[in-house]
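U., I forgot to send this yesterday:
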Amino acid sequence: MENSGGIQASLAGRYAAALFDLARENKALDAVETSLKTLESALDQSADLKRLVTSPLVGRDAAAAAIKAVGSTLKLDTLTANFLGVLAQNRRLRQAPAVIAAFRAMAANHRGETTAQVTTAHPLSADQVTALKAKLKTRVGRDVAVDMKTDPGILGGLIVKIGSQMIDGSIRTKLNTLAHAMKG
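Result:
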């Protein structure tokens, strides 16, 4: 497995690489990836969970106990739940979102895919996501895993990031460009 040196150079990347290696050895890549997606969704939706993960005031033991309860509630696989316990004990829960992103990139690379981060104003339907993946595949020449985010602030359109490439087709950017052009 070839990992990007840039991913592994970060703290979150090293944790993600360790989790990826454990998941691959235990043939649990899909289960871990599903659990991480569930955790990411919970972090986006729960202010209390986000506070638990980011607060420096929560002690190691309290964070470990809380994250164990969260893992049980979210029905995370054992490997992911144990890994989160390690993050809590090492006071690295704050790194969880970056670990999730790095793990997802490693898993996509392992499957021969590239990952595209797509931001839309509104959630896309399954058909729209499928069509977007097909367009991106023709552009990059590989299968594309799509990491979807919604941001109503872009007003409409979408922003696609693949590696260092960014395609900004958002209405907000178009309006800003037009306003700048009108100023002279």
